[in-house]
Amino acid sequence: MSLTDRVLGDRQRLAYIASQAADARLNVELETEGMTLNIGPQHPATHGTLRIIARLDGEQVVWAEPSCGYMHRGYEKLAEVRTYPQVTTLVNRIDWLGSFANEVPFILAAEKLMEVEAPPRAQHIRTILFELSRIANVSLFLGDLGVQMGAITPVFFAFRDREYVLNLIEGATGGRFHPNFDRIGGLKDDLPKGWIAETKAVMKKLRTFCDQIEDLLFGNEIFQSRTRGIGVIPKDIALQFGLSGANLRASGVDWDLRRDHPLPMAWNKADWKVWTHPDGDSFARCWVRLQETREATKIVDQLLDTIPSGPIMAKVPKIIKVPEGEAWVSTENPLGEMGYYVVSRGELGPFRVKIRSASFNNISVAPWALRGVYVPDIITILASLYFILGDIDR
Amino acid sequence: MNTTSSTQPRVASVEEVKAALGDRLVDSFQKDDLWLRVRTDAWKSSMRTLRDTLGFHYFCFLSAIDWMPSPYGRGEDDPTEPAPERDATIRQGYAGGETRMQVFVRVTNPVTHVSVIVKSDVPDDSLTIESIHDVYAGANWHERETHEMFGIAFDGHPDLRNMYLPLDFEGFPLRKDFPLLARMVKPWPGIVDVEPLPGGDDDEGGDEQ
User: Fold this and answer.
1) How many domains does chain A have?
2) Which residues of chain B are within 8 Å of residue A333 when distances are taken between CB atoms?
């Protein structure tokens, strides 16, 4: 070792000791250099490819910004060159865990412009399939929630029980993930034989699943300490960011489009409850979703008993031309308010379709909600906001 | 039962809005929704009035419409033929308008569940309109999206970075004069390249499916 090295080494060590002593004496915090943490685009805690860039000061987030666009497919542009029946194939792939629910508002918007209404039987079956896709979607959320916090067991329960629901959707529509079953004026097909009894049995299993998840997860001390009081989004912030669905109801806003907006669907023929939570934290958002899954099984059960007889298709022309006009229809999808603003020029395809997807608004609150939180909480807050990548980027 | 509120009207009354907005309101249209058009220079102040006076606190979405009919139609032209003549007159939709581009926003009153769609013209020469991100914080991302897709600038927006497209992307994809490249490369429905069935008629083999 040369002389200079030794001197430099000593000098550095001395400087370090001196700074430590100074800090200890003055009781000042160590000045840490800021650091940029890049989460994703590939990360086990994201469904798909959301990338989060977080600027950290020690363990705390100074600012964080989700970076979208890894899955942008340009459906608004593609819809302009498709015919109306072809658009459902596209919108199926927006929120891929609850595909059927994506088709419904678009079809309703087209029906609104055409002044066609689906027959009662079709409305009923639509509502049942809509709620089944909600159960399939949210049950995965409930299982996945555990994984984000290091609990592996719930996800196995979720995948097992979601499979029952997917089998039902497949049995009725032919597609597990992308049913493409909704038609302008009704549905493609009637329900298969024996489907109703099967569905009732599955709904019973799903209610047991909800109880198990509540026992396994929501009563768990670690889960509670990781989510209670974390990521609080107050009511006014939630409203002006346009949060919807369970995220909005967890902030204490009693608003559910299924109940509060009249649509030609069958939700008002069942007895169910809209759950809200006053806290607005991560726990509240998860809890509201759990209750909604329970309510959805109840809705399905009641509607199965009261399916009216009759046709499943209204009289619509073979080649569908939608009259000129503008229409907006939104429904309460598993992720929140999903709506389509359809501008028609009386042609075979839409002139412009604006797709308002729930996750885009839900995740736009993330820069606000993540400011000042600790690094492990980034994951729980994002998990509780619940987004699907295809639903952000469209 | 949850049927209590489903019979109430869901549309804001025009008189109420007129009284609140005064001469800032240019035009309105009522069907099963209420469409309003406000003056471009009063875009932000009208939105603030709607929020504070009439209680439209919930921000649903913001986007734009390009009213020019696409010169490419629906991308089904035969590339070997000369391009067909198309009607290129710009016709605006509900609540009228004077410009090619319009921004529109939907806001809701979370207590009464009444909603309104507000449109505003975007001047053709400057393509600029005020940002409303400080009225509705959620408009921030929507304006970024609209900026990159339509090329409309939002005055006072803190950060109009691209959300989806690469930073060096040229053009504005949702404008009607931006061609859908997939359709340019291979015209719809395209010649589907399917092998003829064994033993099938060779003449009809590779045609349509």
Assistant:
1) 1
2) none
